[in-house]
Design a protein that fits this description.
By secondary structure, the chain is mainly α. It has 18 helices and 2 strands.
């Protein structure tokens, strides 16, 4: 029975990780506001003006990064790097993005031309004024570049569409399929669309995982199902945060403070996502599986076991139930924050808007002594994951308690991120449990503040005017982490291709 339930959960999960909204941790504007915490202490220096380099300056920066890697004193790292990139020309913008765990296909801010990024991202009336016309050589306060950097991994979709590209082409396997750059991402979603970035925006703990539904019931943080590739379920938010943090250290060393702030903001994006507790567990709570099972039996009765109609299956019903709650809780909290900042809090738990993007004293005390070259971004990520593992199931359970039963009925599909605010608010129970709502908002607020605390600690230790990080340590750490990722991706991709009959013959070949 457990084996059957596990397979059903795998089907359910594969659907969940493919729905719109499932890979966002916070709304773009939440990522924009989290760096508010840096403005509270003038000693952090975020009011200082700086500009981003122009397109030629980005190319010069990439060449300098290449030279640092090629000249590393670590002979083993040097040989591995040069085997992949024997010349500076080989370390192109596309190669640099792939090195950083981004998609080669999509233009990314800080790597590609500003015009290409602007054309790809487009303009949105919902974004703050400091996002419009991102021009090089135009000074802005460092905190503006941090904000922009924090939002852009969602805006330029750098972790989506990670297909394997060779010489500007997308090779295919003998069965005609395109090839993921790293097939392991399929265990957290698809390659394309929002779920394509789930692997980079989630952070699971590093304990052994089980697909046994009994584990989902007793220890949700240790439950995971591989849904697309025969391998472990891996997530990379801590690694992405650390990689951009180390790149920021190099930019500072090269005298590019604006670029350093932008890359720091990129790293902060992943810290922000990990502050959202439900991005530290792969599946919600066991009760959703029970809800779906009950609905399956109910629909079988309604359909007279197929005589009157075809009843929906567990996969379809369960997908909708989990997705409904996932997108509802994220949208409801966004609305609650917006109203708190406007002086119209939805609940006394958010009465003090100034607390939303401030430090958490408990977390600050716990993390303040972490070593600067720890690696600090990664260590902070692990602390956020530990909190999220404890609180994520509770957040889901509270969302279930607060919402109307319609969200758990067969055939109900509400993508709250695509709906007006009034729709999200309408799914609160008419007589909402005040204690449950207070607990839900408090947990969400704590997640925000922990993420803000992690950002403040990292900036103070790394990019504040008096900080003195060791850029050589940062360079070698970045080099080793990313080369290890690339080597592992190469091996998994080789297996993926082999299992599908090898590479297709080039067009026109006999």
């Amino acid at each position: 029975m457990f084996r059957r339930r596990s397979s059903l959960l795998a089907l359910l999960l594969s659907g969940l990780l493919s729905v719109p909204g499932a890979a966002f941790g916070y709304a773009v504007l939440m990522h924009d506001r989290l760096p508010d915490v840096l403005e509270r202490d003038p000693r952090l220096g975020v009011a200082a003006p700086a500009a981003l380099p122009d397109d030629a300056g980005l190319e010069r920066f990439r060449q300098r990064v290449y030279q640092v890697f090629a000249d590393t004193a670590d002979a083993e790292l040097r040989a591995r790097f040069l085997a992949r990139y024997p010349t500076a020309e080989a370390f192109s913008a596309v190669a640099f993005k792939e090195f950083m765990g981004s998609a080669a296909i999509l233009p990314s801010l800080g790597f590609d031309s500003y015009a290409a990024v602007a054309e790809s991202v487009g303009q949105s009336a919902e974004l703050p004024a400091h996002y419009s016309a991102i021009e090089p050589n135009r000074p802005r306060p460092l905190v503006d570049w941090v904000r922009i950097g924090s939002a852009y991994p969602d805006l330029d979709r750098r972790n989506q569409d990670r297909w394997w590209m060779v010489d500007g082409e997308l090779p295919r396997t003998a069965d005609g399929g395109r090839i993921p750059f790293d097939p392991i991402i399929l265990n957290m979603g698809r390659v394309e669309g929002l779920s394509g970035q789930a692997h980079a925006h989630y952070g699971l703990n590093d304990r052994p995982k089980s697909s046994d539904p009994a584990v989902l019931k007793s220890a949700p943080a240790d439950f995971a199902v591989a849904v697309g590739f025969d391998g472990p379920v891996l997530t990379f938010a801590p690694e992405r945060a650390q990689a951009y943090g180390d790149l920021a250290v190099l930019a500072r060393h090269f005298g590019e403070p604006g670029l350093a702030a932008l890359y720091a903001g990129n790293g902060f994006h992943y810290l922000g996502d990990l502050g959202n507790q439900i991005h530290t567990i792969q599946v919600g709570i066991y009760r959703f599986f029970v809800d779906a099972t009950l609905q399956v039996w109910k629909m079988k009765v309604v359909c007279l076991w197929g005589l009157r109609c075809e009843p929906p299956g567990l996969n379809s019903i369960g997908l909708d139930i989990i997705s409904n709650h996932h997108t509802w809780l994220e949208e409801y909290f966004r609305i609650a924050v917006d109203r708190a900042l406007a002086g119209k809090p939805v609940h006394p738990a958010l009465a003090s808007a100034s607390e939303l993007f401030s430090v958490d004293p408990v977390a600050q005390q716990e993390w303040a002594s972490l070593p600067v070259d720890g690696p600090l971004m990664s260590e902070l990520s692990k602390r956020l994951i530990a909190y999220g593992n404890e609180e994520g199931p509770e957040v889901y359970a509270l969302a279930r308690t607060l919402t109307r039963g319609e969200l758990r009925k067969a055939g109900v599909r509400v993508r709250f991120g695509e709906q007006p605010d009034e729709v999200t608010l309408s799914y609160l129970k008419p007589r909402v449990d005040d204690k449950a709502l207070a607990a839900f908002l408090e947990l969400q607020k704590q997640g925000l503040r922990r993420a803000a605390t992690a950002m403040e600690i990292w900036w103070r230790a790394t990019l504040a005017p008096d900080a003195q990080p060791d850029w050589r340590v940062a360079a070698d750490r970045l080099l080793r982490q990313q080369l290890d990722e690339l080597d592992a991706a190469d091996e998994r991709r080789r297996r993926w291709i082999e299992e599908r009959g090898g590479l297709a013959a080039p067009a026109g070949a006999e």
